[in-house]
Amino acid sequence: MSRIRGTKEEIISKKSQYGMWLGLPEEAREPSEQRELAKQLGVDITTLPKWKNDPLVIQAKENALKLFYKSGTKVALFLKSVEDGLRDGRPQTQRLYAEMAGLLEGREKKTAGPLDIKVTYKTE
């Protein structure tokens, strides 16, 4: 069994950082991979899953979720997702955009099939 090195305060800090990382959507995580985070924190990759149910990690995760969803970051990620979907021509994103923009009539809103409209994405 490997022992995590560091003072009690350092371990608490690492657990808090891990919890905050878990509380962010995958798109907002830095570093993006758990393996990279383990390396950054100076712990073995097998340590992080063991910490997942630690009350300190859970509390840090909940705090990160609250902060993230109160910030404008959530809206920015949503808008980026819509922008990417329009650029890539994804039908679901086009439907969402059309509904948000009020471009659909009553009957069109109820159908789940493809739309007769095409939203074009222009880059400058």
Can you walk me through this structure?
With 124 residues, the protein is mainly α. The protein folds into two domains: 8-70, no CATH class; 73-110, no CATH class. It is 60% helix and 0% strand. The protein is built from seven helices and no strands. The chain has helices at residues 8-22, 34-41, 47-51, 55-70, 73-88, 91-100, 106-110. It is elongated. The model has no long low-confidence stretch (mean pLDDT 78).
Write the layout of secondary structure elements.
Blueprint: H1 8-22, H2 34-41, H3 47-51, H4 55-70, H5 73-88, H6 91-100, H7 106-110
Features:
mainly alpha; 124 residues
Mean pLDDT: 78
CA distance, first residue to last residue: 56 Å
The gyration radius over C-alpha positions equals 21 Å
* Count of individual helical segments: 7
What is the string of SSEs from the N terminus onward? HHHHHHH
Major pleated sheet: none
**How many discrete structural domains?**
2
Uncertain runs:
none
Q: Helical amount among residues, as a percent range?
A: 55-70%
Q: Which word captures the global form?
A: elongated
Helix vs. strand class: mainly alpha
Strand content: under 5%
User: Got a strand count?
Assistant: 0
Quick recap:
The protein has 124 residues and is mostly helical.
